[in-house]
Design brief:
This protein has 419 residues and is an alpha/beta fold. 39% of the residues lie in helices and 26% in strands. It folds into three domains: 2-177, Molybdenum Cofactor Biosythetic Enzyme, Chain A, CATH 3.40.980; 183-260, Alpha-Beta Plaits (2-Layer Sandwich); 265-418, Maf protein, CATH 3.90.950.20. The chain has helices at residues 17-20, 28-38, 53-66, 84-92, 100-113, 160-177, 196-202, 235-253, 265-276, 290-296, 314-321, 325-331, 336-350, 399-418, and strands at residues 2-5, 9-15, 42-49, 69-73, 96-98, 126-128, 132-134, 143-148, 151-156, 183-191, 213-220, 223-232, 257-260, 280-284, 305-310, 354-360, 375-382, 385-392. The strands form four sheets. A six-stranded mixed sheet has the order 3-2-4-9-8-7, with helices on both faces. It is globular, with a radius of gyration of 26 Å. It starts with a strand and ends with a helix.
Length: 419
């Protein structure tokens, strides 16, 4: 749980012709909006602008007239189409000046990497007169902080990793010092096992407008997030209001809630495995190793994950997992019987306490009326046998979504068993 205070409105400007044309996805704005919300900053607009100097300058001028904070990402590279610095100078009505300290930092970056410093990189150390540089230890493009009218403008690189680190180190502390007003407390609950509409119906009264705690729902690949936000004159009052609604949600939703904040199904399962000193392995067909990837995305997963087998072909299922070829011929690779033998065979070979197996039709082709795209069987083998569940995830879903939802469903099966 974190605390922040509401301050001013902010606008986000993403620079790049590739973003405006749809050739690349703007993930920076979504990330920044989430971080600003955590600081109590209200984001009122996201704008994408091509690499056009007059257009960027005009957008900066407009944004500075309507928001107290303007965050710009992109256009700080060394090439001719990187014109954010020039556009900001135009909007401010000042010239560009070279900052020697920033220039030395850029040179030092190339030395550390053993790369040649190109003269074009010199322009990355030029800033509008009066602007303060923001150091970038993670790349070659320093950012800057400047005043434009009544607004504070922050320009950060478009490279996500660099942008995120610079925001955390230089921008977020600034925004905290500007804090004014009421204390805000937030909490996000993560759910799986029921659809957005089902959960929405169960908590509809808590989502009504005008309540002291604002409750909202978002969904992505079957994972449901419930965000609670409350505001009060002091931390104790705000925390008490939120705790009451959180307790109510937990009573209503029970095991549908698997975690909070940034917890994932894989991290929660990992914690449960570690606490019980259990091990796990995977036997995958339709997910092709994605389930094992989710498990290994969690730091320290080597403490409980013994390994995984990707047995995509029928022969692989037989040779590597000991699935009876006659069983595959009789029931098909996508069947309860095969899923069960996959899990049992993997457990026998790895010695894991638990094994998850997946077999299904991820599409877009390969479905039949009897076995449509989106049909998945998931088995969970453990001491005493294996349980198998059949799921129809939806033939309308793309292949990637079917695979992701299969992994989430498998992890949730194991979570519920471990709990």
């Amino acid at each position: 749980m974190w605390y922040a205070v509401r301050i001013v409105r902010a606008e986000l400007i993403s620079i790049g012709t590739e973003l405006a044309s749809g050739l690349a996805l703007d993930t920076n704005s979504a990330w920044l909006a989430g971080e600003l919300a955590r600081l109590g900053v209200e984001v009122t607009r996201h704008v994408t602008v091509t690499d056009d100097r007059p257009a960027i300058a005009a957008e900066l001028d407009r944004a500075a007239g309507s928001a107290g904070i303007v965050l710009v990402t992109g256009g700080l590279g060394p090439t001719d189409d990187d014109v954010t610095r020039e556009a900001l100078a135009d909007a401010m009505g000042v010239p560009l000046r070279t900052d020697q300290a920033s220039l030395e930092q850029v040179r030092a970056f190339f030395v550390r990497l053993g790369r040649r410093f190109a003269e074009s990189n010199t322009r990355q150390a030029r800033f509008p007169e009066g602007a303060a540089p923001i150091e970038n230890p993670w790349g070659t493009a320093p950012g800057c902080r400047a005043r434009l009218g009544e607004a504070t403008v922050y320009c950060l690189p478009g490279v996500p990793r660099e942008m995120k680190e610079m925001f955390r180190q230089a921008v977020a502390p600034d925004l905290r010092t500007l804090a004014r007003g009421a204390v805000i407390v937030t909490r996000t609950l993560r759910c799986f096992g029921a659809g957005e509409s089902t959960i929405g119906d169960q908590i509809a009264d808590l989502m009504a407008a005008g309540r002291p705690v604002t409750v909202g729902i978002t969904a992505a690949e079957g994972l449901i997030s419930i965000r609670l936000i409350t505001e009060a004159r002091d931390e104790t009052t705000a925390e008490t209001l939120l705790a009451q609604d959180e307790a109510d949600l937990r009573r209503r939703l029970g095991v549908l809630i698997y975690g909070t904040e940034d917890q994932t199904l894989a991290s929660v399962v990992g914690d449960l495995l570690r606490q019980g000193q259990h091990t796990v392995a995977t036997a995958e067909s339709c997910t092709g190793g994605l389930l094992a990837k989710h498990l290994t995305d969690v730091p320290g997963s080597s403490a409980y994950l013994l390994g995984g087998l990707v047995t995509y072909s029928n022969r692989g299922k037989s040779d590597l997992l000991g699935v009876d070829p006659l069983l595959i011929e009789r029931h098909g690779a996508v069947s309860e019987e095969v899923a069960r033998q996959m899990a049992a065979g993997c457990r026998e070979r790895t010695g894991a306490d638990f094994v998850l197996s997946t077999t299904g039709i991820a599409g877009p082709g390969g479905g039949t009326p009897e076995k449509p795209v989106g049909l998945v069987y998931i088995a969970l083998a453990r001491d005493g046998g294996a349980e198998v569940k059949r799921y129809l995830l939806g033939s309308q879903l793309p292949r990637s979504s079917i695979r992701e939802r299969t992994c989430a469903t498998a992890l949730n099966m194991l979570r519920l068993r471990l709990q």
